[in-house]
Amino acid sequence: MNRILFTSEEIQSDKTVTLTDDRATHVRDVLRAKVGDVLRTGEVNGLIGTSRIECLTSDTIRLATNHYAHAPEPWIDVILAVPRPKVLRRLWAQLASLGVGKIVILSAFRTERSYFSTQWLDPVHYNPQLIKGLMQVGAARLPTVCARKWFKTFVEKELEDMFPNSLRLLGHPGDKFSRIPKMREWRRPVLAIGPEGGWVDHEIGILKQHGFIPFSLGTRTLCTDTATIALIATLMSQFAPSK
Q1: How many CB atoms lie within 10 A of CB 72?
Q2: What class does CATH assign to 76-239?
Q3: Are 110 and 138 a contacting pair, CB within 8 Å?
Q4: pLDDT score recorded for residue 179
Q5: Beta-strand runs (E) in the chain
Q6: What mean pLDDT is reported for the chain?
Q7: What is the structure's pLDDT at 180?
Q8: What homologous superfamily is domain 4-70 in, according to CATH?
Q9: Model-level pTM?
């Protein structure tokens, strides 16, 4: 944890927070902090700053918060063909760490519809993972998540409203697509990532009709989690704001 985050419900009217969970264990056992020490903290979807330890016992830690600055904002959005549940579980924290702001979990021809019944599409289960990713990088803006079971319906009826001014990029393995396109002016990218076998030609055609520019990292067909991290990391150097 490079920044400990609290929800607004945890911050009391006197701006103190009492921790009893794994965050308290981290402060005691990993940071080896003591009363009077100052920690990097923040509020989920709020400001960041520091907190001073006022009380530390074997069970609880009470912190006095001082949050005054804005955290780094998300710089990219992702449309992800629904992966296997265990892969999705691994990806949540990574997506938050990499600066993703909106996440659309979408059906595709090569995905299983049963994947939409996983507990890892329940906010009760994925929000803690997203927060874990935010704490790793010191950010605070929780990604928004939605799941859509109908590929064509989403692209034709919801895409434009959700991503009206984005640079639309389509990641797909192979040697027939160009490398990352250059931009004359910055636009927040939205990246469409297909299943492990890639998008089928029909899906590529529909996405291209709606302004998506295909690009490739090469001919290797990667696992979904590997491809997702590699694609976003590749785009970071060109598209992520410096602050």
Answers
A1: 16
A2: alpha beta
A3: no
A4: 64
A5: 4-6, 16-19, 38-43, 47-56, 61-70, 76-81, 100-106, 144-148, 167-171, 189-193, 213-215
A6: 92
A7: 67
A8: Hypothetical PUA domain-like; domain 1 (2.40.240.20)
A9: 0.92
